[in-house]
Each structure stands twice: as structure tokens, then as C-alpha cells.
């Protein structure tokens, strides 16, 4: 009742114009939804790629990271002297270190006997490696030479390791041509660079890679005191350590990896281009719908102009039509996006999920798509001559 | 004090086309319409009646001559000025031009929505009132596609009158109607116009409705021949 007293309340012309032809409205919404899904998937894959590339990075129990300045990314790590990491212990704020070896080795599928590249991490089992509280207990299993922890999120191509292990079967296979035994399971997650992961002791690691100098490591994890600003320690360590080593905070280490995939490969560009294609396809669909809608209703718009309605009022009607289309097209795209993300997660084990920022980004793109198309369609309306209706 | 004329035209000429294709459709027309007057404009097809109607309705630019509507000169007027002026001019089109997606009542309300500073409730009541005046209260929720030609024309009239115009322009309002309905519509127009004291200019070919006019104008070849 209160709405009836409003002076600005008008007949919902935009909605009535849109809904008058339900089939055309359905086609329009299907087109927008399709474009939205395309954008959700492309942006989801892109972000998933970047997130997946740092799955292991995020799990490290470290405040700072040492690495070689020659390291390009997780798929191209170079070694540096382990003594640099030991030197960092001299800093008063450093409370612990963990030397880590990091490289890709060939894993033999114990079922099919085919080989596949797997990311192998070597560390001292007495040192902390991951944030996972259960990991400490598992790491003691690695004190026996030739034992490894296998990542259950590794792709199925590495073999039915989890199934065999949980069923109590002895899981033995070859890594880099040497016999190893799976002593336990961990949950890390694959990335675009690594389809699977294993963790072992440095002793076993050096046995698997005999050419590697014993004093060489790829990553040095540093833990500092609580309430100490990591950036200050980084600056301090940079001054005290030679330039054959790079000092990063944990976040910088994560961004270093993400930036490699963003800037040094075409993958980020390809997925962004895919999203742009979805945007363009959506623009074409919405423009066609709105243009034909305006054309169909041109005599009616001209009548309203002849009656004394402002051209701005009619342009606002078209803009509202575009707004309705963007909202109604976005909702099913969002739901389908959620469903497809879960499908991708299950199939590829990539960390692809809906987040608020992407949900807003895609809605904003759909809104721009609809409003931009409406602006183009409005040119037809601006050209409408009310005298033509006589 | 001199009475303000609703329409005053002096030596109005109009052309269509350009260059060698340029053709004059109105030849130095002069005429007036007083407040509350019902004027019928007749003449053969192509004589310039509709052009004159669209010029008075502020739908076209004035090319030559003077045209005053409610005392406002339309020559050299801006698009915005003409749009504002049209709010006081009701137009009834030969083809009804009802909005297909709106019901009869909503179509009438599109006219009432032009009333300034009125609540939604008031505008809605106005549209119902005018729908009742044209005898279509029972058809208020029907879409134009479900109405007869006569009913559509009556809704177009209600829509025009709901905006409380001071000048009503009607282009062949009875062309698509049978004799009885046509007569009924024009009588309705005259009565409602009288009640609202607005001037009415009707372009028509229909000789059956000539007696409703206060004055009859006859046009031929772009000129007004008689001004009775």
C-alpha cells in the first residue's frame, strides 16, 4: 500500500517489454548464462592454475625462504649451498631452519610399470616441514632409508597407491631407478607443474639423486620468533648473506611462483583470452537481443516520445532491460559455475572453487556486457522519429 | 486582455526531400484554433493534413513561417522545448499505437503517468476513471491483441485524455471503425474535450462526423481552401 503513494513509481515497462516474449527472453538468458559460464570456467582455471602452483608452498612451516637466485620456478629449481641456511641461524630472530631438496624424479607405476615425473621433496625427518600437526609423526617413518610418503591427491596415473596402502598391501616401486617403499600417505595436492608429490628424507633423496652434491639444497625454510616483522628479518639477512642466495618471505615465495606462471608462460594469457572470448560472445548475443527488442518496439517508443516522454526516460527503460538480463542471466551461470567447479575438483584435483572476488568479477563483466550492448542498441532508439508514427 | 490562442499559424510552409527531389507539401498556411474549439480538417490524401498535424504536435521542425502553440513559438525551438510542449498535447493515432505488452489499463496509465507530482495511486485512479469514461472498465486487464479495433481506439482516446491535454490532435480516429462506432468515438471526444475544455483538431475523411465540428477546414494541395 505504501508503494502506491510513491510519486516515482511507474509501470514496470522494462520488465513487461522483456517478458512479453518468453521464448526470446529464455534465449537471451541462455546466451548470457553461457557467456557467464565460459568466463567462470576460464577465470576459474586461470586462478586454479595459479593456486595449484603454490599448493605445496602454502603448506610449508616457514616464515622465510631461502632459494637460489637462478631458480625460475618450482619446475626449474637450482641448488645453493646449505651453509647459507646454517649462516642464517646466526640472526637473533631466527629460531629454526629446515633444508629441503626439491626436484622432479621418475616414478614407476607399480601396477602398469609405466613411469611418470613426480615432485620429490627431501628433508631431515627431525626438522619441521609442513604445518600439518599430524605430519611430525609420519615424518619419523622416513628415518628408515628408502621410505617415502606418497601424496594421496596425486593423479591416478601414478597407480592405486592409496588403495593398496590402506588395504595393508606392501607398496614398493622405483623412483629414479631405485627401489623405495611407501611408508605413509600425506595430503598435498597436484599442480600444473607437478601431477604428484612424494616426501622423503634427505638421506634417501641423496641416494635417489647420487650426482647431487651433499651440501646443496633447493629451498631453505626459516622460522622466526613470534611478533617479529618478517620483512625486517629479510632485509637483515640480505645484508648478512652473500648474493648467491635469495631471501624471501613466505608470501613473496608464493608470489614468486605465481608470477612465473602469470608472466613467464602463455597459460595465464590463454585463460584470460578465453574469458575475453566469453565476454565478446555474450556481448554479441545481448546486443542482438536488445537491438531486435528495440527495433520491434520502435513504433511504441516513438509513440511514447510523441506523448511527451523524455528520450532519457526511454533510454532508462532499455538500460533497465539490460540490468534485468544481466541479473537473470548471472544467477544460473553462478549455479552452473559452482557445479562445474566441483566437477573439475573431483576430476582433476585442482583447487578450483568459487570465490567472492571472481563471483563479483564475472557479475561485473556480465553487467558491462549488457549495459554496453544496451548502449549500442540505444542508438536505434535515439534515431526514432516520433513523426514517423503518423 | 487578448485571449491566448491554442494554435496560431502564420504563413507556414513545409517541404520534404532535398535538391531536385525537394517537394513543397504546405503552402503558406495561416489558421488559428481557439481554446475549447473543435476543428475538423478534411481533404484528399496527400494534401498535407498529417504534415500539418505533426507540425502542430511539435513532432517536426518548422522550416518556414510561424507556428505558436499555447503562445510558444515552435520555429527554431529545441528538441527539449518540443518534448515539454508535447506533454500538453494529446495525440490519437490512426493505428492506435498501444503498447502491446501493456493491458488496457496500463496503456491508459502511460498517459496518466505524464501528470506531474501525482502519486501512483492517483495516476492509477485517473486511468481507471478514463477507462470507465470510454466504457471499457470490464476490459481493463486485456492486452491490445484481445481487443477490437473500436475498443483499441477508445483506449487510445482514454490514454490521450488521461494526461489532461490542452490540445487534442487526432489523425483519422474513425478510419478503421464502422459508422456507429466512429460516430460514438467522435461524440465521446467532443464531450470529453468540452469537459476538460481542451481544443480538438481532427484530421478526417469521414463525412459522417462533420456535424460535430465547431469549424471545418478544407485542405487541398498543401493550402487551406475554406475556413468556415
Layout of strands and helices, then pairs:
The complex is a heterodimer of chains A (390) and B (228).
Chain A: H1 13-19, H2 22-52, H3 55-59, E1 64-67, E2 80-81, H4 82-88, E3 94-108, E4 115-123, H5 135-139, E5 147-151, H6 161-166, E6 172-175, E7 178-186, E8 197-201, H7 202-208, E9 216-217, E10 219-224, H8 230-240, E11 246-249, H9 250-263, H10 267-296, H11 298-307, H12 311-348, H13 356-382
Parallel strand pairs in A: 4-8, 5-7
Antiparallel strand pairs in A: 1-10, 1-11, 2-9, 3-4, 3-10, 5-8, 6-7
Helix pairs in contact in A: 1-12, 2-10, 2-12, 2-13, 10-13, 12-13
Chain B: E1 7-16, E2 23-33, E3 38-42, H1 49-56, E4 64-69, E5 72-73, H2 79-86, E6 89-92, H3 104-112, H4 120-133, H5 149-162, E7 167-171, H6 179-196, E8 199-203, E9 215-220, E10 223-227
Strand content of chain A: 15-25%
Parts with pLDDT < 50 across at least 5 consecutive residues of chain B: none
Number of helices of chain A: 13
Number of strands of chain A: 11
Write the element-wise H/E pattern of chain B from the N-terminal end onward: EEEHEEHEHHHEHEEE
CATH topology (fold) name of chain B: Rossmann fold
Please tell me how large the radius of gyration of chain A is: 29 Å
N-to-C order of helices and strands of chain A: HHHEEHEEHEHEEEHEEHEHHHHH
**Total count of domains of chain B:** 1
Query: What is the CATH-assigned architecture of chain B?
Result: 3-Layer(aba) Sandwich
Q: Round the Cα radius of gyration of chain B to an integer and report it.
A: 18 Å
Amino acid at each position: 500500500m505504501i508503494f502506491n503513494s510513491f510519486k516515482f513509481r511507474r509501470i514496470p515497462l522494462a520488465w513487461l517489454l522483456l517478458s512479453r516474449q518468453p521464448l526470446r527472453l529464455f534465449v537471451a538468458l541462455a546466451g548470457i548464462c553461457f557467456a557467464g559460464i565460459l568466463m567462470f570456467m576460464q577465470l576459474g582455471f586461470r586462478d586454479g592454475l595459479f593456486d595449484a602452483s603454490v599448493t605445496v608452498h602454502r603448506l610449508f612451516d616457514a616464515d622465510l625462504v631461502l632459494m637460489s637466485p637462478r631458480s625460475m620456478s618450482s619446475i626449474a629449481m637450482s641448488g645453493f649451498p646449505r651453509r647459507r641456511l646454517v649462516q642464517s641461524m646466526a640472526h637473533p630472530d631466527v629460531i629454526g631452519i629446515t633444508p629441503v631438496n626439491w626436484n622432479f624424479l621418475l616414478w614407476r607405476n607399480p601396477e602398469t610399470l609405466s613411469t611418470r615425473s613426480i615432485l620429490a621433496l627431501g628433508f631431515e625427518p627431525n626438522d619441521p616441514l609442513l604445518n600439518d600437526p599430524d605430519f611430525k609423526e609420519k615424518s619419523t617413518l622416513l628415518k628408515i632409508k628408502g621410505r617415502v610418503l606418497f601424496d594421496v591427491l596425486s593423479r591416478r596415473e601414478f597407480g592405486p597407491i592409496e588403495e593398496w596402502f590402506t588395504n595393508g598391501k606392501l607398496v614398493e616401486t622405483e623412483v629414479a631407478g631405485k627401489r623405495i617403499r611407501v611408508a605413509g600417505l600425506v595430503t598435498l595436492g597436484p599442480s600444473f607443474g607437478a601431477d604428484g608429490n612424494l616426501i622423503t628424507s634427505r638421506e634417501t633423496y641423496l641416494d635417489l639423486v647420487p650426482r647431487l652434491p651433499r651440501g646443496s639444497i633447493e629451498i631453505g625454510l626459516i622460522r622466526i620468533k613470534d611478533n617479529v616483522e618478517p620483512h625486517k628479518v629479510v632485509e637483515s639477512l640480505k645484508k648478512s648473506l652473500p648474493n648467491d642466495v635469495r631471501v624471501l618471505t613466505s608470501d613473496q615465495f608464493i608470489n614468486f611462483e605465481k608470477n612465473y606462471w602469470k608472466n613467464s608462460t602463455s597459460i595465464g594469457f590463454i585463460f584470460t583470452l578465453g574469458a575475453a572470448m566469453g565476454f565478446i560472445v555474450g556481448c554479441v548475443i545481448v546486443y542482438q537481443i536488445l537491438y531486435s527488442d528495440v527495433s520491434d518496439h520502435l513504433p511504441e517508443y516513438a509513440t511514447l516520445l510523441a506523448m511527451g516522454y523524455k528520450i532519457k526516460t526511454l533510454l532508462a527503460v532499455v538500460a533497465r532491460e539490460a540490468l534485468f538480463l544481466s541479473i537473470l542471466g548471472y544467477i544460473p551461470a553462478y549455479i552452473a559455475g559452482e557445479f562445474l567447479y566441483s566437477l573439475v575438483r573431483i576430476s582433476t584435483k585442482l583447487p578450483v572453487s568459487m570465490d567472492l572476488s571472481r563471483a563479483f568479477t564475472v557479475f561485473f563483466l556480465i553487467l558491462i556486457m549488457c549495459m554496453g550492448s544496451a548502449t549500442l542498441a540505444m542508438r536505434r532508439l535515439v534515431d526514432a522519429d516520433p513523426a514517423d508514427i503518423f | 486582455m487578448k485571449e491566448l490562442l491554442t494554435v496560431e499559424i502564420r504563413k507556414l510552409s513545409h517541404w520534404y526531400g532535398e535538391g531536385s527531389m525537394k517537394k513543397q507539401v504546405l503552402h503558406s498556411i495561416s489558421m488559428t484554433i481557439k481554446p475549447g474549439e473543435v476543428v475538423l480538417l478534411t481533404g484528399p490524401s496527400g494534401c498535407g493534413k498529417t504534415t500539418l498535424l505533426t507540425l502542430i504536435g511539435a513532432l517536426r521542425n518548422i522550416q518556414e513561417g510561424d507556428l505558436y502553440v499555447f503562445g510558444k513559438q515552435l520555429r527554431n525551438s529545441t528538441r527539449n522545448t518540443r518534448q515539454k510542449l508535447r506533454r500538453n498535447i494529446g495525440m490519437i493515432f490512426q493505428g492506435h499505437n498501444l503498447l502491446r505488452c501493456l493491458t488496457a489499463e496500463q496503456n491508459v496509465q502511460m498517459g496518466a503517468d505524464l501528470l506531474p507530482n501525482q502519486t501512483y495511486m492517483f495516476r492509477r485512479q485517473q486511468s481507471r476513471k478514463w477507462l470507465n469514461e470510454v466504457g471499457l472498465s470490464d476490459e481493463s486487464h486485456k492486452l491490445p491483441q484481445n481487443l477490437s479495433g473500436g475498443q483499441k481506439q477508445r483506449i487510445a482516446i482514454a490514454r490521450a485524455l488521461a494526461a489532461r491535454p490542452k490540445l487534442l490532435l487526432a489523425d483519422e480516429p474513425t478510419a478503421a471503425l464502422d459508422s456507429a462506432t466512429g460516430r460514438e468515438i467522435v461524440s465521446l471526444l467532443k464531450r470529453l474535450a468540452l469537459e476538460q475544455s481542451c481544443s480538438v483538431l481532427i484530421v478526417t475523411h469521414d463525412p459522417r462526423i462533420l456535424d460535430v465540428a465547431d469549424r471545418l477546414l478544407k485542405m487541398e494541395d498543401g493550402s487551406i481552401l475554406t475556413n468556415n
